[in-house]
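Practice problem: AI-2E family transporter
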Amino acid sequence: MFTRKKQLTLERWFFLIVAAVVVYLFWKIIEPFALVVVTAGITAIVLSPLDIKLRHLLKSRKLSAAFLSLGTFLLIVIPLFFILILIGTQASELIQVSLAQGGWLRSFQMDHLALFQSLPAFAQERLMSINLETVGSGVAAWALENVGELFSSTTQLLLNTFLFFIALYYLLVDREKLYQELLTLSPFRNSVDEKILARITSTIRHVVFGALLLAIVQGVFATIGMSLFGVPGAMIWGGLTIISALVPLVGTALVLVPAIIYLFMIGQVEASVGLAVWAAIVVGASDNLLAPYFIKGTTHMHMFLVLLSVLGGFAVFGSIGFIIGPTILAAFLAVLELYKSGILHERTGLKF
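Answer key — structure tokens:
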């Protein structure tokens, strides 16, 4: 016969095993859509201030959530659909241009450049062994191959899009209930949980509306400039400009300067000068004028960390990592900041 104590111990272990199995099976069920739900949650956090205002205006949380979900669809999904079509078209054109204009790559005399002549002999030999025409064609082919992946699994993409907006709607409607559930399930005191959640949500909003939004704006202006002055595949290079805008020190110049040089090399001097002026005035002004507004409140986040989080997010989570990566960074920095400030000291008894 089991004693009462042993019986309770056995029941606890049995419950833990059953709970672990159920949680594992539940995770396997939702795993294919986990990133969709997480992305919807991030979007709901970003939209929550607007949701609060709309609720007061419309006197209905469901109607407010419906308006925001529909607005998100109209402002993001539909333009993104046409952008992807343009990128696919321009990727094909980029390969054709690369093959058609291979002559300027073949005739390009690298050894006549003063910078090249100043390099050590072994570096000159290595650079001379590079076939620029092959590299140019390879880059264009890589772009087309990877853009093609965006159009694969159409059914899955449509399903994920549908689930995203359903999840966004219910996350907005039941935002307060979910918040209270998190407070209930957390082992920490409510005051500690509230500080952690407030810091995380605030940081997420600052990241999305800060560094990333500024990078997107610069990428859009760069795309417009490259389109106006005849750079092939402007949409593709504009997308890369968004990433390069997060790189400290060099920023958008990482893409725009090679584009300017390219136009000069193929004899389009006026277009090259025009793009240089556009980059300096329009793209540069967008950085100087909008950065103080977009990145306010993000001074504690180093741009290099934001860049790493975006690239790492792409590598781990795919295209959706553009948002997931910075969100994880935001959560990490929020927890780290709370750890440093000693908020958890009273609860854990640990010394910081």
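Discussion: Confidence is low (pLDDT under 50) at residues 107-117. Students who identified this feature from the tokens alone can consider the problem solved.
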